[in-house]
Amino acid sequence: xxxxxxxxxxxxxxxxxxxxxxxxxxxxxxxxxxxxxxxxxxxxxxxxxxxxxxxxxxxxxxxxxxxxxxxxxxxxxxxxxxxxxxxxxxxx
Amino acid sequence: xxxxxxxxxxxxxxxxxxxxxxxxxxxxxxxxxxxxxxxxxxxxxxxxxxxxxxxxxxxxxxxxxxxxxxxxxxxxxxxxxxxxxxxxxxxxxxxxxxxxxxxxxxxxxxxxxxxxxxxxxxxxxxxxxxxxxxxxxxxxxxxxxxxxxx
Lengths: 92, 150
Known about the structure:
The complex is a heterodimer. Helix content of chain A is 39%, strand content 24%. By secondary structure, chain A is an alpha/beta fold. Chain A has one domain (2-90): 3-Layer(aba) Sandwich (Rossmann fold). In chain A, helix 1 (13-28) crosses helix 3 (76-90). Chain B has one domain (2-148): Mannitol-specific EII, Chain A, CATH 3.40.930.10. In chain B, strands 1-4-5-3-2 form a five-stranded mixed β-sheet. Chain A binds chain B through residues 7-13, 15-16, 19-20, 36, 39, 53, 55-56, 59, 71-76, and chain B through 48, 51-60, 62, 64, 66-69, 91, 94, 103, 105, 107-109, 111-112, 115-116, 118-119, 122-123.
């Protein structure tokens, strides 16, 4: 699967989020390609999942991809819980 | 590396900032004095917040200013301020903010290692508490380096 982490410019918070997501996927033994992108580029990408800061919700409105919004980007537990919940749901 | 980027020139404690723009300029000035960026980059960091909203408030009390990498950044760089009085960003329950970072990157991902170090620091709430209470820049450096050696 392809996951994109998104922030306004594609190299700050999206990169932080990518690192956290990569760690979680490795720990869980899940294979996925994770790329950090800016909000503009993310709109044209056909990914399976978008993960971004909750503050970017309106910037990503209208993008027809499943989205997970994170409140606290330094909270690995929040990222992990939301990502694993999503993965569980799609496998049901 | 975060331990080289954050040093006696790029950390200031108990800074007074009138508002978030003032905080961005003060954090940016440290990078400017170090010749890591030029003045335009500071304005770009401010503009980014106007453009995308306060998503640079990455966690409760913590803001990470940055802008798109361009020729106005000369090297990967990071500065840090603790604020005398916390300020509002309009970031909801992540306000008020008292820990400010300014990041300069030269491309999409060469600052990955720096970000990994920063994440390690920011994920440790006890360490952040100690940094907020630190009385000297030297102590902050000691705390950060101690964390990275773990």
